Each structure stands twice: as C-alpha cells, then as structure tokens.
Amino acid sequence: MGSPFLWGVAGSGHQIEGGNVHSDYWLAEHVAASMFAEPSGDACDHYARCFDDVALLASLGYSCYRFSVEWSRIEPAEGDFDEPALDHYVALAERCRNHDIEPMVTYNHFSCPAWFAARGGWSDPDSVDRFGRYCTVVAEALGDRVDWACTLNEPNVGVQLREDGIFPADDQWREFDWQRDAARVAGGSQFSIFPIGPTQPSQDHLLAAHGRAVEIIHAANPRCRVGMTLAVQDYQTMPGGHEAAAESRRKAVDVYLDATGGDDFIGVQTYTRAVYDPEGVVDPGPDVERTQMGYEFYPEALGGAISYVASRTGKPVFVTENGIATEHDERRVEYLDRAVASMRAAVTGGAEVLGYCHWSIFDNYEWVHGYRPKFGVIAVDRTTQQRTPKPSAYRLGDHARAGRP
Ligand code: BGC
C-alpha cells in the first residue's frame, strides 16, 4: 500500500492573502478602466492569519493544504529576493507539517510580479529564465520540508477559454486601455498578465518554464513529487461531435499532457463538462442548474476528467482543484459527494489517484469577478475576518476520515 490518500483544500496567494501590492494583478486592479469588478484589498488576510488557518484545517480533519507562494512577495523587484517573505512560506510549510498536513506548494498561481508583466510576462522568451531563477531560490529555501509541488497553475486555461469561445482567437486580441495605463505605471512598454492575451508565444514559454521548474525542484528535494496542474473539463459529445471535441481537447489539454514526461503526477482541476456537436461547444440551455460562474452543475465531470488524463498519460493524478461557486452550501455538499463518487468510479476503472483538494479553502477573490462567487468551504466575514466552516467543510472532513475513495 503506497502513501495514504490525501484530502484537503486549495487556495492561492493572491486570492486569499491580501495586500499583494507588488503583483501584476494588484496593479491591474487599481488602474483606470480596470476590468476587475473590485480590487482584492485585504482578501482573507491569510498572510497574517495563515498559522491559525492551518490549525483550523487540521481540526476539520484534512491531511493536505495546497497553497501558492507569491512570486511578487519573494521577488518584488527583479533579482531582489525578500528573505522575510521566503521565511514566511517556509514557516507555513512547517506549520502544516506540525499539524500532520502535507503542504502542497504551487510555485505560480497566475499572479506574477508587476515588473515581470511590464517585461511582457510569459510572452517574453526570457520569462523561462526569470521563472527558473525564482524557482531555484524557492526550492532551496523550502528544501525537504515540502514533498508535493505544482509548478504552474493551469498554464492551459487561456487556450481552454479560447476554445470555449470566451476568449478571442489569438489574432483578434486588442490591447485593453487598462493595459496601457498599467504599462505606464509599471514603467514598461507593455503589461501582460496571464491568462489575458494571445496564447502564443506564451504557451511555448510556459511549457519550457514548467520543464525547467520540475528539474529545479527535483534537484533541491529528490523526494518531492512535482506536477503541472491543468484545467480539464469532461469532454462529452453529441452525435457527430467527436472530432470537434477531440480537436479542442488536443489543443487545450493534450499539448500540455505531452509536456509532463518528467512529472510525478498530473494535477487535474475540474469544474464542469463541455458537450460538443460538430460545430463546437453546445450551450447547456436554460433548464440546467448553473453555478454562480454560469457553469452547468455537473459534479460527475471529475471522474471523466480523471479517467481521460490517467489513461492518456499512464501517470498518477492528483485532484488539485474541484468545486462550485454557490451561495447555497447544500448544493456544494451534493456536488462534493457526487464528485467524490465519480472519482471513486475512475479509480475502480483503473486510474491511480493520489489525493483530492477541494477548491476553495475560503470564499475568496475570484479574479475579475471579485468577491461575488462563493467557492469556499469556509465562509469569511471580510469585515471581522472571522472564519466559519460551512457544512461542506465538515463533509469534506467525513470523506477524509473515510480514507481512500
Ligand atoms: C483557478 C482558480 C479559480 C478557480 C475557480 C481555477 O481555474 O485555478 O484560481 O479561482 O478556477 O474559477
């Protein structure tokens, strides 16, 4: 019997820490004509409260916490590494371990330093070296305290949004006014934040950066299991839709899976399904239940996504995100139970699954949408910063106590 199945929650620095003032997102939230519904502000004040938050996760019975280290805190100016910020994340990892929680560290969860965006972000070929230099500093600081790492969060999400028709095709992108303002404020000629913008040439640089990070993290801690996390919908078809679905999945998922040769696991992040007819994705129509994000309520997508990734790569899967935005926590409880049942079915079908992290730890900052969508298993009163676990938080604890799915 290998290592125990891990159960827990995931979050990302910019979405919960608060005051991430050197990041590209923070800058983009504050310029004129910003496309963000509201700025992230103090978020859930997790940077100050993370040690208590870990104790809360332990009390709920979780065995894993996936969090991200914020590049812009660690390297607020290019080449200038901030020791107290590094110490903070080392202490957070240690705090997890002291509470029998496996820390899973994401090296980059979308947000980057503002200086990086002003140099073209991931579209600049030097982004690979820039990320590599940062990863080396972080991996050496964390050392053998962290045995689970994700390099990049959803480097495929821009392609997926384009394939779903939510983002324009690469040659249709026009610079936003706020990007011009942001470039001016950051002292660059451009301002490129992921995943806003054309998917090329960023895709090549992201894939190269991933490969580089895997090597760096393995060199610093050979025991560390490293993977890329990917947005993976459950691709389903209507009559005649097979080719369109396969082509879309090839561009949005397979290209990335093909770059995971050196990885120890694939991080699967699933929220819903996409159904294809010969023309492309079909809208689910007015009668289906939808989440606050407008996605179809379809928890069984998780099992489909796991089975696909496991059978295509032959590698173990870790569910690094799965969840639902809703004001009605009883819908989250149902979503969780059904998603876990579908994960169990995928395991019975032959997939190796190492763990499950629900998205999200808290009701947090949902990027351009601000604080309206509620993804958390723990509610946060953002005036008092009081945390209140929802019934779904306890249900996740029940699954954790039940053990392997
Ligand atoms: C991202 C998270 C995001 C979540 C819900 C994932 O794509 O990794 O940052 O909050 O989906 O939309």
Q: Per the principal axes of the C-alpha atoms, what is the gross shape?
A: globular
Mean pLDDT: 97
Measured as a percent range, the helix fraction is 40-55%
What share of residues are in beta strands? Answer: 15-25%
The CATH top-level class label: Alpha Beta
CATH homologous superfamily label:
Glycosidases
Q: Can you tell me the number of structural domains? A: 1
* Small-molecule components bound: beta-D-glucopyranose
Output the helix-strand order: EHHHEHHEHHEHHHEEHEEEHEHEEEH
Q: Tally the helices: what do you get? A: 14
Structural class: alpha/beta
In the CATH scheme, what's the topology name?
TIM Barrel
Give the beta-strand count: 13
- Compute the separation of the termini in Å: 14 Å
Tell me which CATH architecture applies here: Alpha-Beta Barrel
| Major sheet size, sense and barrel closure | 8 strands, parallel, barrel
Integer-rounded radius of gyration: 20 Å
Low-pLDDT runs of 5+ residues are none
Side-by-side strand order of the widest sheet: 1-2-3-4-5-7-10-11
In words, what does this structure look like?
- This protein is an alpha/beta fold.
- Helix content is 40%, strand content 17%.
- The strands form three sheets. The protein has an eight-stranded parallel barrel, surrounded by six helices. A three-stranded mixed β-sheet has the order 6-8-9.
- Helix 7 runs parallel beside helix 10, helix 8 runs antiparallel to helix 11 and helix 13 packs parallel to helix 14.
- The longest helix is centred in the C-terminal third of the chain and has 20 residues.
- The protein binds beta-D-glucopyranose.
- Beta-D-glucopyranose binds next to loops.
